[in-house]
Amino acid sequence: MAKQMMLTGNYAAAYGVKLADVDVVPIYPITPQTSIIEKIVELIDKKEIDAEFIPAESEHSVMAMAVSAQATGARCFTASSAQGLVYMHENLFVASGCRLPVVMCMVCRALGTPQGLGYDFGDALDQRDTSWIQIYLEDAQEILDMVIQAYKIAEDKKVLLPVAIAYEGFAISHYLEPVTIPDREMVKTFLPAYTPHVALSDVENPVQMGYCDMNGSLMTEIRYQQHEAMENAKSVIEKVDLEYGKIFGRSYGGHIEKIMMEDAQIAILAMGSIVSTSRIAVTTLREKGLKIGLLKLRVFRPFPWEKIIDITKNLKMLIVLDRDVSIGSTGIVYSEVAGALYNLEKRPLLLNYILGLGGRDITVEMIVDIVSKSINDTKNGKVQSHVNWYGVRGL
Amino acid sequence: MRKTFEHMVQDSDTLQGIRAGHSFCPGCPGALLHKFVAQAMGPNTIISFGASCVALPGMIFPQATTLGSIYISMASSASGLTGISAALKVLKRKKRLKSKEKITPIGIAGDGSACDIGFAALSGAAERNDDGIFFVFDNEAYMNTGIQRSGLTPQYSWTVTTLQGKQQRKKNIPKIMAAHDIPYCATVTYAFPEDFISKIKKAKEMGPGFKYFHVLSPCPTGWKFPESKTIEVSRLAVETGMWDLFEVEHGKLRITYRPKRKRAVKEYLSLQKRFAHLTEKEFESIQQTVDKK
Question: How many domains in chain B?
């Protein structure tokens, strides 16, 4: 029987781990990920989760443990944040290179220096090229549902890539919300125990994992296979989302959730908690007669450029809000969107706003202000200022 | 009848462990390590490799090793063992293991990868007493990258990064590992195969927990001695007292081989061109250190 509980984002992730019947959980503590560990350990202690918990000595080791345990034939989960993610960076490539469907929560926090506890997507987006599927979420219910879906996506034979569930620290990880916990037996039917096609534990058929390509004889082909797997993941993500919706009553729109987009001429594109704020801002602007919509980019890898083209091609203007920046260039999401739209004959004017770094608050008023600035900026039909740092003090 | 060393090698030739066409230099004892391990451990073994010459036969296609293995990254051999060990435990509990036999995870890594860059992982696995056996292939430098000094390069040794000889002493890893209070910690080398193999068998038969093997591995390429002399150098290391064969079982130290009459360290050192620049004073200083032990 499904039931309701008040859970934080991190606790919802732990309940997702419970329902997904995870086998091995190596973790190293880092704020704001820690309450996931606390909850998982508590649930193991109460015998609600039957898993091996490994209190590792570093994040680098955590990912190595997840890789080797998954390679042995166990379903693995871990979580990290900021400096921890950067510290495990090297081994993230190994998880995807060995095609091991590990699932991890990236509880986003700004990277030091300056050191801090505030959130932005700099840490998760820094893992962009590690060949992990990346899904950016907005609330606790979505986190619980997506931990379960993540295994279904990752373990699909056409995919076999690790999945990262990314959400902002504190704003989402520590925010208490009512969450529906699905029925355990129904989840078991949706997601049976992990059955890998190759495993180190099958000692009668020994395999070597972590192959070495000394002179590029296979690198291109292996990378292409990973790329193909990412492409395959596009339809798998949509399929799993719909299937989950049919069984459990909640679907999230796959790659992109479209909000008030029917007759929209202007749209905002964002990820994570900015979407929640923008929902209110867009409603307010609609009430004033502006034909504006909102796009919640959920899946960043594989990047859904076909979908972005399809949804935005008839817009007059698209404003990309980046809670991240590639210093020396633009917002990271913006450059991906720009790349997707470039070859179109008719495409929307594209603006980028970089804001909310290190957890600085983003209010409804700010989003309304950004929209009005963007309209002013493009009055003569051209973009005057493509990339805008919003709210920089002392400028 | 006591078996000679040649007998042991011939025996292990018939066992799986390593195939022809491996990537070791001529005279490298790495192939022997693979054979001894396979002979003592049997097929129900999974290897986690750390970056090292000794890992290459498991990594380069076509793989020359016969046991299943994984290579993760330079610093991750011990974490690999930990992950395999945890997975085996939970899969057995959940009745998802195909094999009915006990499977043992082992780690094999070089001195640099295990005891320098990956030492946190090694120490962590020992502290948690994760179930498995760990082998450090100690050839006393970063040999795979071209003979750069490591924390385990001995004092006065030439390497490409210690042109005048290393100033610092060799890090005493077996002592540090024994200080973790693990069930078993042993030192071995190739010239004493019975000692080597019986220690592995003992570790395999012990209850769950972390067992550590430090394998002194003479390297003809990096130590600069003729490739036919590997076993001789290995034997001299022990006969001169430069390398002690011992085991620490549940905290109890036992010397497993004691040379009847210690030979002069110069016999061991002068076989290796990496010590060719040593002065009489430096030979004497090494001799005194060994005598004091």
Answer: 1
